[in-house]
What we know:
There is one protein chain. This protein is 47% helix and 14% strand. The protein is α/β, with parallel strands linked by helices. The protein has a single domain (11-239), classed as TIM Barrel (Alpha-Beta Barrel), CATH 3.20.20.70. The strands form two sheets. The chain has an eight-stranded parallel barrel, surrounded by six helices. A two-stranded antiparallel sheet has the order 2-3. β9, α8 (198-203) and β10 form a beta-alpha-beta unit. The radius of gyration is 18 Å and the shape is globular.
Amino acid sequence: MPSSSAHLAPGVWGVVATPFTGSTLDVDEASLVRLVEHLERAGATGLTVLGVFGEAAQLSTAERRTVLETVADSVSLPLVAGATALGTAPVVEEALLAKEAAGDRLAAVMVQVNSPRPEVLALHLRAVHEATGLPVVVQDYPLVSGVRITSEALVAALRDLPFVAAVKAEAPPTPVAVAALTDALDAPVFGGLGGLGLLDELACGAAGAMTGFSFPEGLVACVDAWRDGGYSAARAAWSPYLPLVTFEQQPGIALAIRKECLRRRGLLAESEVRPPAASLPPALHEQLRRHVQEVK
């Protein structure tokens, strides 16, 4: 079966953090521009905006529009816009906002799995597509959605939906999920979770990574090396970054660590996160300095 023109291109789709500034934690548009321009220079295939690590759930509608318009005006990369809701009507509203703000730069809307029942999920995704005309990236991220679906049920839901642009597999063990999905679906499957399982996901058929990491050039180097030289080349390219990857992905504080890494790289002016996200514990500042120093 030939690939759909709606399918996302393989490679690295960088998940964009939303920078804030000042005591009121306003969206920092200047830092956002620096960040996405760096992602483009680093070789990202496209960008995922308003994802979980973009703190989209903590943004107002006006702020979401500002983020999308700023990113679209700053880089030429295709964009995927995340939807935070699980219900069909609010997802449609979020997707239409993204379509209005980003226009033809919008490659797809990313929609979370909202039910373990394939028939319910399929109806949801079809309704979103029909209401918006947009291709859909399906995100299986039970840690955030609270919904757990088997790979078999996910395949059953997606098999007959030609508008599915990609699947983002973030239900551990992700390599097993990637293998099952790539074996049964035509749509490309991307790993996430900050690149923790990237090598194994590529080995199981992943088209690349759709995730955030404070050194996106490392993600690009790994995926490019896999394509050109296979496992050994990809392992060599990714190994220098792995200590920071595991440090950055600590549960509960991963977002704060990543934003502080980005600040120390000069890409963000400030590294604050919006509540209820946790701030970076002072006990980790020195170890973070060591990690960043090692991969500069």
